[in-house]
Design brief:
By secondary structure, the protein is an alpha/beta fold. The protein contains 11 helices and 9 strands. It is globular.
């Protein structure tokens, strides 16, 4: 059923509530609109529980973290768990500071996540308590083989009950026993702010429309990677690349995703 997800999103128009960072909030809202979902962005603790109760997906992103938004994330996450709403967590920069590392631990303890997406350094720190985060980017020291990424993702999935998405040159998406490797994308995606945040929001749309399993998350990751490839083909620089990336998501459909996605199941 991987190749009917975009159509399902556009038919259902799931409301995806994002408590995200102020650097990329506009991009996250627009990528949700581009795929056919409906975004709502807010972070005040006086309204987050009320907003969660009307949404179909919740995205938590700690990119510009503070104690106020952390309290809001915990409240929203717990309410989402009560209502059976999938929570997608992006531990941006986990390991770069004590605040981010402790916030990630708090959220993983207090909130049951359906999907956790991050680079290898962020996921390694969340799972094993070690990593070499370079700000919000993955560190070269944490680079490893796909087989090792799969082992880490499966172990972390077993620990948390979440689908784990480790994104990088090759993307690994895994539950405790089912893993996929996606080989789409372009290195230019690392040169614009927010490509990872946009992907997490995109996963929120897929999960909000009922595709929060490993294959559905793989479809979201593949769609973003394909959009990066298309954008690069017409790009004249980082500004046009960002615009073309958004355009590619807005015009993508399921047959095109099926044609272009490079996906393998990892035994």
């Amino acid at each position: 059923m991987i190749f009917d997800q975009i159509g399902r999103i556009r038919a259902a128009r799931p409301l995806v509530f994002c408590i995200t960072n102020y650097v990329t909030v506009n991009d996250c809202a627009n990528i949700l609109l581009a795929i056919g979902a409906s975004p709502i962005m807010a972070d005040d603790e006086q309204e987050v529980e009320e907003l969660v109760s009307i949404c179909q997906g919740l995205v938590l992103n700690i990119g510009t973290l503070n104690q106020r938004t952390l309290r809001s994330m915990v409240l929203a996450g717990k309410k989402a768990n009560q209502h059976g709403i999938p929570v997608i967590f992006d531990p941006v920069g986990n390991g770069a500071s004590r605040l981010r590392t402790e916030a990630t631990r708090t959220l993983l303890k207090e909130v049951r996540c359906a999907v956790i997406r991050g680079n290898v350094s962020e996921i390694r720190m969340a799972h094993a308590g070690t990593g070499s985060a370079k700000g919000v980017d993955a560190a070269a020291a944490d680079a490893t083989s796909v087989a090792n990424l799969v082992r880490m993702a499966r172990a972390f999935a077993a620990e948390t009950g979440a689908v784990i998405a480790i994104t990088g040159p090759q993307d690994v998406i895994s539950s405790a026993d089912t893993s996929y490797v996606i080989s789409n994308g372009h290195e230019e995606m690392e040169r614009i702010t927010g490509s990872g945040c946009m992907l997490t929001a995109l996963i929120g749309a897929f999960a909000g429309a009922g595709a929060g399993d490993p294959l559905g998350v793989a479809a979201a990751v593949g769609a973003m990677g394909i959009a990066g490839e298309i954008a690069m083909a017409g790009s004249q620089g980082t500004g046009s690349f960002r615009t073309l990336l958004m355009d590619a998501i807005s015009t993508m459909d399921d047959p095109f995703l099926k044609e272009r996605i490079k996906i393998e199941e990892f035994a």
